[in-house]
Specification:
Elements (H helix, E strand, L loop, with lengths): L4 E10 L2 E11 L2 E6 L6 H8 L7 E6 L7 H9 L1 E4 L11 H11 L5 H14 L15 H13 L5 E5 L7 H14 L4 E5 L3 H7 L2 E6 L2 E6 L1 H6 L5 E4 L6 E6 L5 E5 L6 E2 L4 H9 L5 E2 L2
Parallel strand pairs: 3-7, 3-8, 5-6, 6-7, 9-14
Antiparallel strand pairs: 1-2, 1-4, 8-9, 10-12, 10-13, 11-12
Helix pairs in contact: 3-4, 3-5, 4-5, 5-6
This protein binds adenosine-5'-triphosphate.
The site of adenosine-5'-triphosphate (ATP) has 11 residues, from β2 and α1.
């Protein structure tokens, strides 16, 4: 697939902390999930790609634009929709007013065309009915949808979403996943998350970051396959297990190096992810 976003050698330090350590990647149309433990550098990578903070070293392009130049940076920002981890809503704004405000910042100067666009994105995230309500009166799920609507203003080709499903109940999360999946049609979406189900359900590619570096890049099926033959059931926690827990049925589910003749279980993406975190060598799948 043709890459729409390419980065090479991105490095960023905060004092003695290396938040990004020589990160290179290629993204294409569709939803790519970014997994990694707390402090792995996910937010930092998203902020760099969203031109919110410059890297110390390295380069990247977004839809052919180079943010290393002043005009290229503007072009990247025009092509970008960014939903940060904690969006800075003005709580007294209505959903419409907030998205309209973002549309003004995105240089949609013609008032009636802009209002049409604001109505379009609010409709796309299913908020038309509450567009006049103040943001402080909306539920957490609705607020996240206001943030997504703001990110979608102007139909950006590259959408960056930082943990958008955090704090949502299962029903809201499912609805939000549907919206992200729709947003990924004909567009490049990079989504950071701690939810392996988000990745299993809606991503066509997945990147795993650990301590500022990319540990794995490939399809969700390839990440799951890393745990093939390495998940098993037992009556007590197995010493060969890198992770193991008692399940609701009373038996143990173990992930790691199974003993001979172990009762193997079907692996999940989470199992592949756990093994990738746990000192597995880096792997970049084609
Ligand atoms: N503004 C900052 N000043 C100093 N250190 C920072 C700053 N932002 C991030 N860091 C550090 O850089 C590293 C990467 O942080 P980052 O927030 O990118 O990780 P993350 O994978 O997004 O974590 P989380 O899942 O908890 O959001 C961490 O060690 C963090 O403490």
């Amino acid at each position: 697939m043709t890459p729409t976003v390419s980065a090479s050698g991105l490095t960023l330090r905060y004092g003695g902390t290396v938040a990004l350590d020589d990160v290179s990647l290629r993204l294409s149309e569709g939803v790519t999930g970014l997994l990694g433990p707390n402090g792995a550098g996910k937010t930092t990578l998203l902020r760099v790609l969203a031109t919110a903070v410059p890297a110390d070293r390295g380069a990247f392009t977004v839809l052919g634009h180079d943010p290393g130049t002043t005009s290229g940076r503007l072009d990247v920002r025009r092509a970008l929709g960014y939903l940060p981890q904690t969006p800075a809503f003005h709580p007294d704004f209505s959903a419409f007013e907030f998205v309209d405000y973002v549309a003004i910042l995105k240089e949609l100067t013609d008032r009636s065309a802009r209002h049409r666009e604001v109505r379009r994105v609010l409709e796309a995230v299913d908020l038309s009915d509450v567009r006049g309500k103040r943001i402080k009166r909306l539920s957490g799920g609705m607020r996240q949808r206001v943030g997504l609507a703001a990110a979608l203003v102007g139909d950006p080709g590259f959408l960056v979403l930082d943990e958008p499903t955090v704090g949502l109940d299962p029903e809201q999360r499912m609805r939000f996943r549907e919206l992200i999946a729709e947003s990924g049609v004909g567009r490049t979406v990079l989504l950071s998350t701690h939810q392996t189900e988000d990745v299993a359900m809606l991503c066509h590619r997945v990147i795993v970051m650990v301590r500022g570096s990319i540990r794995f890049e490939g399809t969700p099926a390839e990440l799951t396959a890393r745990a093939a033959g390495r998940v098993w059931s037992s009556t007590a926690r197995d010493p060969g297990a890198r992770a193991g827990w008692r399940t609701g049925t009373g038996s143990f589910r173990n992930v790691g190096d199974p003993p001979k003749g172990a009762d193997l279980l079907e692996p999940t993406l989470e199992d592949g992810y756990l093994l990738t975190l746990d000192g597995e060598p880096a792997e970049v799948a084609a």
